[in-house]
UniProtKB/TrEMBL annotation, chains A, B:
Keyword ATP-binding: yes
Superkingdom assignment: Bacteria
Species in which this protein is naturally found: Commensalibacter papalotli
Protein's name according to its UniProt entry: Aspartokinase
Phylogenetic placement of the source organism: Bacteria, Pseudomonadati, Pseudomonadota, Alphaproteobacteria, Acetobacterales
Entries under Pfam families matching the protein: AA_kinase, ACT_9
Catalytic activity: L-aspartate + ATP = 4-phospho-L-aspartate + ADP
Domain ACT residues, every copy: 276-359
EC number annotated for this UniProt entry: 2.7.2.4
Length: 417, 417
């Protein structure tokens, strides 16, 4: 092993290890990195379908199952994959051994079924790598202070990988998945969508929370906090060992690493929104709180909010909530009707939220204007607008989703040549 | 919990926990024991089929898989069952938690895939029981000195249960299985076979090794060494909480505990034997070694041996080997033909070994004679005979198996009324 060998954490998701053939392929991909001179730690998910089966068992026995037992049951899925991949690597002549969370250990809090990592002692893994053995870590899991297995919540293997990469000061954390990177928008809608070669953590968080499902949000937050460089890659490409100079996937890194800051990096959409309009509310201080406090108490996540001035000391309030909460929201507000004092409530779940995202917005003006102009040219009526430092979102009728996303993709110069 | 509450280890095999309904039934059975005032520790196997699937994965990846990885993969089967049963018990209002081998810990040697238990610290389990929580232990597994999971070989959950019972000085170790006890012979052959209410360890070892497949042999050896009282029960009976005065299964205990020592306790048979005859060997000292040493070197287990005196300083040697080893044995002896100096080798795998077993033989004469007389009356030719202190075995043509077993069962007075 040369001095200063790049140290890489490679994480493979459930579809990448879905059966023995795919596990053999993963072993080949890992072997290439080892042969390229890297120190490698691998993190794996459960074979796809396994976690759902185990969760189903728990729920059938008791919908209010003990989360400690749930954790020790579902964590076995990743343990099986880690052992199988270790065997597959050995079969290719690569020394390897599996590590369960408790063997490392990865210490978590005791919020079972959605635990958070408290600390990782990666010294045994580093020793393992430096003795020429590839550690294969069961993702998604750790152990609490009482020695009980704890899991990190669905998709938690991404977080395991990023946390391990931080703990062992890895050069990079490679997340292998069933897509080959992060795209400027959904390629199912826009054929000319481009793979983004580098995206800032903040942008990735916005893209993920509004629809892109490539990385678990928590893993991106952690990567941002710990400054872990994350690369998203396809495990189904027969890609060459990705070296720094020609990375085939998408890098998720800090803003400073991104040379060319585009105005807009990507366009996301979410069909999981519903709009609520409350009309003719008495317009006095504290009225917003009287609407949103009861929703907060019931854990409804309110997103876009617009208050329009009406007449006669009356105002209208428009906001969006997750579609799955809509019925509940209507019930809560109906109950509070007298207290709030509104005349009428309208609901519409046939809407889509479209967002344009880019750290370049901070230094470019006119991004929002381009959006409104582009939509107006297609006669698409904007119902609600919200903005943040690196994002502009609009709510429009759901029927326009493809038209609007395609038009914006072209308008911001994102179409592939 | 009353002082001196009986402390019971209850073990449930793979068919007893094959699906969620059966796991719910097991929880009910455990609850009855708890309500009867016992301190209970439960040991479970993997749901039937699970271990085979996991073993199949390992073998597909590499027939010469790393036994360390094999262990960490297959041990997950029991971990899943232990968590599921803990949830099922909680659902019935019985406090419970699962324990993996490494959490207890059960320390083993590092003979992975067939490890032996070195020591068990059952203090945490005892504390758990005494705080009113039923521990559900994942059977078949422990952890070695390096913190790696180790399994005890197929059927190892019986051994886990007996070892735990010894370590916590349990009143009894109850093995729940798919039969309701140990029978005087195979009930599929003899309709009048009786359940044996009490059997000595030594008898059980003979019965198990010649065909009865109720308890793992190693668990019986361990029970004998540690003087653990073992009870075999059906998990499918809706049996009442088995109390000392009316035990529904079969007790496996030390000879001293058995009041009525029958001449013959049971009749076993094995179709897994093959006979080899080597004819006309020069009859000089050391000739037996020249035949059996090469077989021993290749790990062939030779069972019955008879040497008959021939003529002209020549002798014949007859012995039995496991049927699966027969081809290999023929190859080995053919290779050694000149060295041994035999004229002819005959092989016959169409034979059955029938054994009558009973500690009462020590004080009763005529047991062997009854056997020979009974077989002679049916014109069944005895090919080989071997005897031990508590067993007489004969080898006869396989076609007589049912006739011989039924006749002997009647002759020794074992038929149920």
């Amino acid at each position: 092993m040369p001095l200063n060998a790049p140290r890489i954490v490679m994480k493979f998701g459930g579809t990448s290890v879905a059966d023995l053939d795919r596990i053999r392929n993963v072993a080949k991909t890992v072997k290439k990195q080892v042969e390229a001179g890297c120190e490698v730690t691998v993190v794996v998910s459960a074979m796809s379908g396994v976690t759902n089966q185990l969760v189903g068992y728990c729920e059938s026995l008791n919908p209010l199952f003990d989360p400690c037992e749930y954790d020790s049951i579902v964590a076995t899925g990743e343990q099986v994959t880690s052992g199988l991949l270790a065997i597959a690597l050995q079969t290719l002549g690569v020394k390897s051994r599996s590590w369960a969370g408790w063997q490392i250990p990865i210490l978590t809090d005791d919020a079972h079924s959605k635990a958070r990592i408290k600390s990782i002692d990666s010294s045994k893994l580093i020793e393992c790598m430096q003795s020429g053995v590839v550690p294969v870590v069961a993702g998604f899991q750790g152990v609490d202070d009482n020695g009980r297995v704890a899991t990190l919540g669905r998709g938690g293997s991404d977080t395991s990988a990023v946390a391990l990469a931080a703990s062992m000061q890895a050069t990079r954390c490679d997340i292998y998945t069933d897509v080959d990177g992060i795209y400027t928008t959904d390629p199912r809608i826009v054929k000319k969508a481009k793979r983004i070669s580098a995206i800032a953590y903040e942008e990735m968080l916005e893209l993920a929370s509004v629809g892109a499902k490539v990385l678990q949000t928590r893993s991106v937050e952690l990567a941002m906090k710990e400054q872990v460089r994350v690369q998203v890659l396809s495990s189904f490409d027969d890609n060459p060992a990705p070296m720094e100079n020609s990375l085939p996937g998408s890098l998720v890194v800090s803003e400073d690493e991104i040379m060319e800051k585009e105005q807009v990096t990507g366009i996301a959409y979410s069909l999981n929104e519903a709009k609520v309009v409350i009309k003719d509310i008495p317009d006095h201080p504290g009225i917003a709180a009287s609407v949103f406090a009861p929703l907060a108490r019931e854990n409804v996540n309110v997103d876009m909010i617009v208050q329009s001035s009406g007449s006669n000391q009356k105002t209208d309030m428009t906001f969006t909530v997750p579609k799955t909460d809509l019925l509940n929201v209507q019930k809560i507000l109906e109950r509070e009707r007298e207290h709030i004092g509104f005349a009428e409530m309208l609901a519409d779940d046939d809407v889509v939220k479209i967002s344009v995202i880019g750290i370049g917005m901070r230094s470019h003006t006119g991004v929002a204007n381009t959006m409104f102009k582009t939509l107006a040219e297609r006669s698409i009526n904007v119902q609600v607008i919200s903005t943040s430092e690196i994002k502009v979102s609009v709510l429009v009728a759901a029927e326009y989703v493809e038209l609007a996303v395609r038009a914006l993709h072209t308008a911001y110069g994102l179409d592939a040549q």
